Amino acid sequence: TRSTIVSMFRSMAAAFRGIAERSNTSNVLSKTELPILIITGEEDQVLPPQQSYDMHKLAKDSHLIVISGAG
Question: How many angstroms separate the most distant Cα atoms in the chain?
Answer without folding.
Answer: 45
